[in-house]
Structure formats: structure tokens, C-alpha cells
Amino acid sequence: MASLTSSSRRSSSSYRSSSRYSTSSSRRSEGSLAPVGGTLTGHQSSTGGGVRCLGDSYYMSADVSQFEPHDVVVMAYNHHVVIHAQKVQDDGSISDTFTHKSLFPEDMDPLSVSGTLNPDGTLVVSVRRTTTLGGLEPLGVPTFRSEAHL
Fold first, then answer.
1. Region Disordered: start and end of each range (predicted)?
2. Spatial distance between the Cα atoms of 132 and 1, rounded to a whole number of angstroms
3. CA-CA distance, 16 to 19, in Å (whole number)?
4. DSSP state of 22
5. Tally of CB atoms within 10 A around 26
6. What is the pLDDT of residues 70-92, one digit of tens each?
7. Residue 73 belongs to a domain
8. Residue 92 is part of which domain span?
């Protein structure tokens, strides 16, 4: 049985040269466990949606409506997909950050990670599976890291 976990964190903070740092809020959500090829439904939270498997792809979503597209970064490494966003003000301070990290089953294709930013600010990340629904062995699981800036 392959497993899937996800977590989200949101915080607002201010960092200045005087080393003053404050955090106003922080949230975290956890995903769920499911068999490879099964339907995945994660814990729904206000910061990110559940992860699910539909056909030959996995999908996850996150609400990044309070960020500009250039503030959002999607990273993939090993079997993880991380959505990270932060607002940097003109004076260099960080006013808001968001991180959503998901661990996908071993049959994810790391080179197929793609994202779509909807007009309502929802980022939908899709990852293709390396196996077919018939249960063939994965084509290979390379160790890698990739990063995309929206």
C-alpha cells in the first residue's frame, strides 16, 4: 500500500533589519492514506484541497488567491510536491507566506508535474502516474529536484 500525506502552513510575518520578527497566524492540514490507483481524498482546509487520483494522474489544489503569480513556486523532489508562496514588500519585509507539501505514492512521474492557476486563485497541480491501471511496474524512479516559478 502506497501512502499519501500532505500538509499546509500559512503565516504572516514581518522581518526588518532590527531583527523584529512576528508571526500572526499559522495553519497546518494533514492528508490521507490510500492505495495506489485508489481514489484519494485529503483533509479539506481553507489553505489547500485534498489530493486525489483520477485515471492516470494525481491532482492537488491550493488557494493562492492572495498572491501574485510571480510570488508562487512549485517544487518537486523525490515523491514530494511543494507549493510555496510569499509576498515580499518594497522594503524587503515578508508580509505573508504559504507552504503546502504533499507526499505522493511511488508511481508518480516526477517529470510530469504541471500546474494551472485558475481565475479564482486556485492552483491545481497535476502529476501523471508511471503505471497503468493494470498495475504494471513503474518505469523507473529517479531522484531529482525541479522547480517552476509561475
1. 1-49
2. 16
3. 6
4. E
5. 11
6. 999 999 988 889 999 999 999 99
7. yes
8. 5-10+25-132
**In angstroms, what is the C-alpha Rg of the chain?**
16
Inter-residue contact 129 to 57 (CB < 8 Å): yes
Given phi > 0 = left and psi -120 to 50 = alpha, else beta, which region is 13? beta
Provide the whole-model pTM: 0.60
pLDDT digits (tens, 9 = 90+) for 52-73: 899 899 999 999 999 999 999 9
What is the total count of domains within the chain? 1
CB 54 within 8 A of CB 61: no
- Tell me: the pLDDT tens digits for 20-51? 222 333 333 333 333 333 333 333 334 455 67
CATH number, domain with residue 29: 2.60.40.790
The whole-angstrom separation of Cα 71 and Cα 85 is 5
Q: Which amino acid, 93?
A: S
